[in-house]
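Troubleshooting log. The previous structure file for this entry was overwritten by mistake, so regenerating from the original sequence record. Sequence copied from the archived sheet and checked twice against the printout by T.R.
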Amino acid sequence: MPINEIEIAGSSLSLKCWKAEMEEVNKIFDRIMQEGEQFDLESEIPGFHDCDCDGEILRGYFSGIVPFEVEHLVEGNTTRTLFKRIESCEFIATGRTMFTMGRPGPAKGLSMALSSITGGEVALLEFDFNQLSQLQERMAKIKTIVVTNPKEKEIRRARLAGHIESYTDYNIIDPRNHGIDSVSGVVTTPLGSMTVTVGKKGSLRLGVTRGLILNTACLEWVIDLIREEKRPEVVENFKSSL
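Regenerated output below.
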């Protein structure tokens, strides 16, 4: 399978979206292989492994060893035993955006390692109030919107479900001083209709047909839609270019 494609075995895919601008991903790939820490199981060094690049897409894994304790009984006495496990995250970098799947710990280590290698900031994308508010207007159907009130309000967080034409009409929301935590709804993407859930701190969840082959071009299209850089009406043009 090409490295720009993701086969979704289940009915959904959860990702974290990162700002990771790389002018030439093939050069970043070379630097990862030459200068980046490589994951070593024996010495327990966290790092990169199984990386590949086709000149436009950089893909690989970042893993580390994490200790954890298990409490159990030995001859009637409670004791703790220390174990270790491998935690990993998979990443796909397009040159504009990086998407990660997997554990948050390795993803944080990955961002620090790539920031050092690229000389730029690799950080979670944060979607602002206006972007999330306008995203719901571009959805074919809105499912839920989660809003937050100021700390002094009795209701701090509310999840509103259904088709919401004007959610500020609800009296549990401060219409002039509230935030949007996440928005979920149906979006007509270049690969068909998907349930898209976007969180303000860079989280993206796609509800899809089981077995869908997702590509990075569609992921970038969704990010552009959130960030106001593309509109739903470009779908047909996008399909003809795939």
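Helices lie at 25-35, 104-118, 129-137, 216-226, 235-241. Archived copy saved in two places this time.
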